[in-house]
Structure formats: C-alpha cells, structure tokens
C-alpha cells in the first residue's frame, strides 16, 4: 500500500536525520564530522521485476529526498549518492549494501576532495594559531 510505504519512508528518514544531526552536532570546528550519503545498490538491481524495482525506487527516492532536503546548505552532509551513476552499479557491490574493492575506490575518490578540504583547513588554522619561533611563547 502506497500510504504505508510513505509512512515507513518518513519514519526511516526521520531516524536517519536525527542520528545524522546528532553526529554532526558532536563535531566541532577543530574536529569536524563529515557525513557522506553514499550510493545504494538495491534500487538499481537487474534481477528485480519492473514492479518490484518501481517500488524500491519510489521508496528509496522518498527517503533520500527527505534526507537531502533536511540537510540543504549543511556543508557537513555531502551527497555522493550519484558517484556510481552511469555505471553498471551491480558490479561495484558485494551485496545490497557492501561495496566490492572497485566500489570502495570510487566512493573514496568521491569523498576525497571534501576530506582533503577539511584537512587543509585544519592545517592552515593550526599554523595560523601556532606561535612563531622567537615570539617568547
């Protein structure tokens, strides 16, 4: 039933959002938490019938859209769910949620620029707040 699926999707979305907000809030400027919304395999499965695939897709899109809207403008929540778009996603997964080695590499490559940016920011901040030699501090 569509209404039950919608209620379930909203509930799952709410739990994910609450947990993600909790994690992000625990971070700080000195120790930021980055949350990456990663690709998910099931809605792209080839071994599903059209009806099942349509249900999965609708359910997934409902949840993911709710999550994306909740974190719009939050630079600690990074949506990389499209990292595998344009590929045969199945080969990058060992099962419905765990990546194979190639999948890990693609996701890591998608995450890298964001992590690198934060590391550079932290290094720069640390350098600017460190006393210079000879300052007597």
Detailed description of the structure:
The protein is mostly helical and 137 residues long. The protein has one domain. It has three helices and two strands, in the order H-E-H-E-H. The chain has helices spanning 2-26, 50-70, 101-129, and strands at residues 35-37, 77-79. The protein has a two-stranded parallel sheet with strand order 1-2.
Spatial ordering of strands, largest sheet: 1-2
How many separate domains? 1
Quick one: how many beta strands? 2
Order of helices and strands: HEHEH
The low-confidence runs, each spanning 5 or more residues with pLDDT under 50, are none
Class by helix and strand content? Answer: mainly alpha
What is the mean predicted local confidence, pLDDT? 84
Which descriptor suits the 3D outline? elongated
Q: In angstroms, what separates the terminal alpha carbons?
A: 68 Å
Integer-rounded radius of gyration: 19 Å
Helix run count: 3
- Work out the strand percent: under 5%
Binned, the helix content reads 40-55%
Largest sheet: 2 strands, parallel
Please describe the structure with a list of short key phrases separated by commas or semicolons.
137 residues; mainly alpha; two-stranded parallel ribbon; 3 helices; 55% helix
């Amino acid at each position: 039933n569509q209404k039950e699926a919608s209620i379930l999707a909203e509930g799952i979305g709410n739990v994910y959002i609450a947990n993600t907000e909790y994690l992000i809030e625990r971070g700080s400027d000195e120790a930021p938490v980055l949350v990456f919304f990663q690709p998910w395999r099931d809605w792209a499965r080839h071994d599903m019938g059209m009806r099942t695939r349509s249900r999965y897709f609708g359910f997934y899109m409902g949840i993911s859209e709710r999550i994306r809207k909740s974190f719009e403008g939050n630079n600690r929540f990074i949506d990389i769910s499209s990292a595998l778009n344009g590929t045969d996603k199945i080969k990058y997964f060992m099962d419905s949620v765990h990546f194979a080695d190639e999948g890990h590499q693609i996701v890591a490559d998608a995450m890298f620029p964001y992590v690198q940016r934060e590391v550079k920011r932290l290094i720069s901040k640390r350098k600017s707040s460190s006393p210079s030699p000879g300052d007597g501090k």
